[in-house]
Design a protein that fits this description.
single chain; alpha/beta; 124 residues
Length: 124
């Protein structure tokens, strides 16, 4: 399975790539704009993990653009953010995110959530 990690903090992207790379092929991008360009080049991940606060194109905008695109709209999205407010979670879920986790996070919990989402997607 291919996972796209979108976060402007390289250390977190590297950590996720190392941890998730044990089971999945992981690609990292530093902001939503880089992620969109990558998607538009024909690269389709099985899942996107995105931060909210990023330069150029933030996580909210990325979710909106992915969901409004007919071609990418079915890609599951997990938001991984420092923002712990219910309003942020609700906004992301309304935009079409499949899940929302707050940093710092437990990598094992993230892995289980990824597996659950990917299992549902392959079952349909």
């Amino acid at each position: 399975m291919k996972i796209l990690v979108v976060d402007d903090k390289q250390t977190l992207s590297d950590l996720l790539a190392q941890f998730l790379g044990q089971k999945h092929h992981v690609v990292t991008k530093q902001n939503g704009l880089q992620a969109l360009y990558w998607l538009q080049e024909g690269d389709i991940p099985d899942l996107i993990i995105s931060d909210l606060e990023m330069p150029e194109l933030d996580g909210y905008q990325l979710i909106s653009k992915v969901r409004s695109s007919g071609y990418f709209s079915d890609i599951p999205i997990i938001v991984l953010s420092c923002r712990d407010s219910s309003a942020d979670r609700i906004k992301c879920l309304k935009l079409g995110a499949n899940d929302y986790m707050v940093k710092p996070f437990n990598p094992e919990e993230l892995s289980i959530r990824i597996d659950n989402i990917l299992e549902k997607n392959t079952a349909t």
